[in-house]
Amino acid sequence: MTKRRGNGEDSIYKDGDRWRGAVSVGYDDKGRRVRKKVSGRTRAEVARKLKEVRNAVDAGTVPDDQITVKAFLERWVLVNLPGTVAESTEDDYGDMVRLHLVPALGRKKLNKLTVAEVDRLWSSKLEAGYAANSRRNMRTVLRRALTQAEKEGLVVRNVAALSAAPRTAQREGRTLTLNQAKSLLKSVESHRYGSAITVALAYGLRRGEVLGLRWENLDWEAGTLRLTHAVKRIKNRDKNSDRKTRIVINELKTAKSRRTLVLTPEIITKLRTLHADQAKTRLSLGEQWRDHGLIFPSVVGTPTDPDNFSHTFSKLAKRAKLGHWHPHELRHSGASLMLAQGTPLHVVSEILGHAGIAITKDTYGHLVVDDKRAAAEAMSGALFGG
């Protein structure tokens, strides 16, 4: 074994048919010098790698060729992710890492992960039957995690961002017809969830949004109701509790989702009746009533369990002879009925709380047939007379 070293270079030597090098990257917690080793087919290649290591050290990062995708993702979920997203989103990202990313990519070295390997993962998920939206979410999580790895100098590029984004085709959600909607509302009128179902359908609200509506945001004189919160079920982080999940009231995340509903006289009447009935219940229960200021709480004033609401709604839909329905289909139904009545697409988008009109158009644009026909007829009349 021969050893050669140029001026100003770190240790570079030839070992058989390979060139190798080493550079000091600092000291460990016991004061011992830590050296980073590299290898290559030529002396120039090793010198280049050593220079990259020195540059990384000067920039405040210490490359780690041994860290696996699994080790990095688990650390990212535990250390970097908390506080950057809502708790429910944090839970979803953690599940995505644990169930999909680590089993497929976990054993690979982080800095050796390639775009082709990531693309193969998306292809395998497609073959396994995962929806485009699920695959897109997986890519979002990996891309976000690798952005952190880039910041730390652990990777030189974000292979998830460079991978092919799953193509998403918006599926037409099942919707109630006008007659079905009327039949449902008539059937649930006397049920304690009746007003909640009415409001959810009339404004296309998400399940958590309707359950998070608050009396303090209702302006009786103006006839408006401000959406600011949503009820969600998330993982329980209390180690002293036996319950795996808990119900929380969270503020809506975006400015678009925090919106104001204009109430009709019919809905205001229903809410006045509900307000009076709730006041009587509060008085009769006394200390048993735990007030959270919610318009649609549980029977004791606490947030309504979203899962219980879904189960009850499905039973009510079956009782109305409509079969099995989920509360989210009230949102689709509300949007389609608004458009069927001639409500402009941009107004529907604002009522639904979409981030942009493009989302509304992609999801419900196929329903705006009459507007397209009217535009075509107007152009025809202008161009050809008549």
Write a structural description.
With 386 residues, this protein is α+β, with helices and mostly antiparallel strands. It has three domains: 57 residues; 94 residues, Tyrosine recombinase, N-terminal domain (DNA polymerase, domain 1), CATH 1.10.150.130; 193 residues, Intergrase catalytic core (hpI Integrase, Chain A, Orthogonal Bundle). The strands form three sheets. The chain has a four-stranded antiparallel β-sheet with strand order 1-2-3-4. Strands 5-6-9 form a three-stranded antiparallel β-sheet, with no helix packed on it. β1 and β2 form a beta hairpin. The radius of gyration is 29 Å and the shape is elongated.
Number of domains: 3
Distance between the termini: 95 Å
The coarse silhouette is: elongated
CA radius of gyration = 29 Å
CATH class of the largest domain: Mainly Alpha
Compact overview of the structure:
The protein has three domains: 2-58; 69-162, DNA polymerase, domain 1 (Orthogonal Bundle), CATH 1.10.150.130; 178-370, Orthogonal Bundle (hpI Integrase, Chain A), CATH 1.10.443.10. The chain is 49% helix and 12% strand. It has helices spanning 43-58, 69-80, 87-105, 115-127, 132-151, 159-162, 178-188, 194-203, 207-211, 265-285, 306-319, 328-340, 345-352, 357-364, 369-384; strands spanning 2-4, 11-15, 18-27, 33-40, 218-219, 224-226, 229-235, 245-251, 260-262.
Mind sketching the topology for me?
Layout: E1 2-4, E2 11-15, E3 18-27, E4 33-40, H1 43-58, H2 69-80, H3 87-105, H4 115-127, H5 132-151, H6 159-162, H7 178-188, H8 194-203, H9 207-211, E5 218-219, E6 224-226, E7 229-235, E8 245-251, E9 260-262, H10 265-285, H11 306-319, H12 328-340, H13 345-352, H14 357-364, H15 369-384
Antiparallel strand pairs: 1-2, 2-3, 3-4, 5-6, 6-9, 7-8
